[in-house]
Specification:
The protein is of the alpha+beta class and 235 residues long. 30% of the residues lie in helices and 26% in strands. Strand 6 and strand 7 form a beta hairpin. The radius of gyration is 28 Å and the shape is globular.
């Protein structure tokens, strides 16, 4: 009887020890997972709202996409790790500020990336390019869809026109076909996002100027708008 009790007690001790080891490894594993999720990494996010239809090249070149330090556990599995993957694609929907840039954020126009903005582009040889300007650079926020502007840059040699008589396709997400007035229009005016219609080559000029922070806009009168084709300052 005493021998039986001894065996039972020994078995209980061994079982407790095994259970303790299992708990230890579980807690250690959970702690490691928690530490991994709590570690900080860099990920691509929207620096500000990116309108639907904005090209990936434009979003990158205009600084609409930036890196941010975030918790590793919060990064989506399909997060974009190389902005080169956005080339030739457009935003399939409005991307809110601080939202992660994922593989599904941008798509080729053939895969459903088109929208009302793409339809507003006049001709197959033109593209839309978006820049972000503050009130001092963007005519005090008074630019509206359908206006025509001149694009100037300031460098070491002073100010000069980069492009002239450029048609404005959208301000924020508001196009000329959007309802007039309302909170959406006010928010668009305050967004500082101006989308132009230009040639592909001129889009590169605009994106480079926007990236350097030296871009200024001047508003043309309604009488002068469209009087000449969009041309570089060199003519």
């Amino acid at each position: 009887m005493g021998k039986s009790r001894t065996l039972i007690a020994a078995a209980a001790v061994i079982l407790a020890a095994v259970s303790g080891i299992g708990v230890y490894f579980y807690v250690t594993s959970a702690d490691q997972r928690a530490q991994h999720n709590a570690s900080v990494v860099e990920a691509f996010v929207a620096a500000q709202d990116i309108p639907k239809g904005t090209s990936g090249d434009s979003a990158v070149g205009s600084g609409l996409i930036s890196t941010a330090k975030v918790l590793a556990g919060s990064v989506p599995a399909d997060a974009v790790t190389d902005t080169g993957a956005l080339k030739g694609k457009v935003a399939v929907a409005t991307i809110s500020a601080r939202q992660f840039i994922t593989a599904s954020s941008f798509a080729t126009p053939a895969n459903g990336g088109g929208g009302s903005l793409a339809a507003a582009i006049d001709g197959s040889n033109s593209v839309a390019v978006t820049v972000s300007v503050d009130s001092a650079h963007g005519v005090a926020g008074a630019i509206a869809p359908g206006d025509h502007v001149d694009v100037a840059v300031i460098g070491d040699s002073g100010a000069q026109y980069l492009l002239q008589d450029v048609r404005v396709l959208a301000v924020g997400q508001v196009t000329s076909s959007s309802p007039i007035g309302g909170a959406a229009n006010a928010a668009a005016a305050n967004s500082g996002l101006i989308t132009f219609e230009v040639s592909p080559n001129d889009a590169l000029l605009v994106e480079n100027a926007a990236h350097s922070g030296s871009l200024y806009l001047s508003l043309r009168s309604l009488a002068a708008s469209g009087a000449a084709a969009t041309v570089p300052a060199s003519g």
